[in-house]
Amino acid sequence: MRETSVRHLFKPLKELLIIAVLLIGINVPSTGQSREFLFNNGINYLLADKEIAIKQFTKAIELDSNFSAAYYYRGVAEFKLGHYETAIKDFDKVNQLDTTVRVIHAYKGFAYRQLGDSEKSLAAFSIYMNSQEDLSALDYRLIGKAKMEVGDVDGAIKDFEAALEINAGESQHYYLYMALYSNEEYKEALAQINLAIEENKSFYGYYLNRGNCKLLLGDFSNALTDYDYALYLEPSIPDSYFLRGQALDTLQKHELAIVDFTKAIDLNPKDGTYYSKRGNARYAMGNRNAACLDWTIAGNLGYYEDFDKIKSICE
Fold first, then answer.
1. Which of 18, 48, 53, 167 could join 42 in a cystine, given CB atoms 3.0 to 4.6 angstroms apart?
2. Domains with residue ranges and CATH for the chain
3. Who's near 225: CB < 8 A, 6+ residues apart?
């Protein structure tokens, strides 16, 4: 399999645009209101004003209910406006009229993902994948992400590995890391995040992820080193302080953990998790009243993991 650019995913779109440009060159009287005239108007407005473009494509369809290109571009415009259900209907109509326009299945996959329907999203991406002769790393990444969303982590790992075989880039290592980490394969995940860091040594998020991996593997000292470096690269991310605080708390360094949890709260006072974990650290330090206050705030913010402690300890 050879690596192809992202443009191949939208090859049918490119071809239809060429057709549209050719049609624009045809001398159609402005008063004719033929389907071609309306279609060309829609193409002209597609970038400038999608609502007007949709109206033009709709008028073209009223003149010819089998005008697949008009359905396609109307679907694209609806998709860009976030009207995903309407876009899917247009793409389904295109599929009825012309089964060679395969990119609609990729659009449908994205549309279903936006609608929160992971199973239909995966089904649409699968149809798209099966219709392609040559698959790119991006194709495998798309299907891998769709599988992750429906809980097929093993399948996702295989797809991310296939993406790596085509293009061993930073993002491929990261996606494979995420799948392996989700599958609790921490040693394998650590190897992948190390490779991502080799590709990009300046992204704080990779060090946070590596710290998480090391923490779960029992390498507490090096986990803290990664959290420290993540904060050095980007000191304004509350989760970085929170994760380092959790590591310190695990090492029974409760006082230092409280400092980090407090900093995370200062940066984002609306995350109940931060208060809850600070409450645990404060309770471990013997500060019952402060702990109860933190657990109460956490519950008020919608985080209830430690909320039962209010009844057993605070009341």
1. 53
2. 9-133 (1.25.40.10), 134-219 (1.25.40.10), 236-315 (1.25.40.10)
3. 211
